[in-house]
Write a structure and sequence with these properties.
The chain is mainly alpha-helical. It contains 2 helices and no strands.
Length: 83
């Protein structure tokens, strides 16, 4: 004997929205994204200030040693290019 189950009878696997896509889950995901973006912006601006300081110390000249030091700072931080 064969039987077929209707997809709506499967409970959680039926036609339900994912928890993050509806209600409080979406609000929490949005809040987490905004917090992460704010932290990234803070790190990025701190790194930009550090680079400006290094360039000012070198008299505005971008030499190999200054460029190397800047790249070490960039790679040591969690800085990413804007998307």
């Amino acid at each position: 004997m064969a039987s077929i189950t209707h997809i709506g009878d499967l409970g959680l696997f039926g036609n339900h929205a994912a928890p993050v896509a509806a209600g409080i889950g979406a609000k929490l995901a949005g809040l987490a994204r905004r917090l992460s973006d704010a932290l990234d912006a803070g790190r990025r601006s701190e790194l930009e200030r550090e680079i400006a300081r290094l360039l000012a110390q070198s008299g505005g000249r971008l030499t190999d040693s200054v460029e190397r030091e800047i790249m070490q700072k960039v790679f040591a931080s969690d800085w990413r290019l804007p998307q």
